[in-house]
Amino acid sequence: MTRLIAFNKPFNVLSQFTDKSTLASSRETLSDYMDVPRVYPAGRLDRDSEGLLLLTDDGKLQARISDPKAKMA
What residues are labeled active site? Predict the structure, then answer.
């Protein structure tokens, strides 16, 4: 069964689960807010943006949500 999660991403949080930069210890990621295995963001919001971020475990759905041609935004 496909999982689709709506997450209200806070300001100053990266739209990814890991941060491999040298500043990693000082930057929050999605893993600081949720522990849901095998879900990935469909699109992204900048670190200094806040708002709705959709996450899913379905690669085709993720691609469709992220594709501007699908006109889902």
Answer: 46
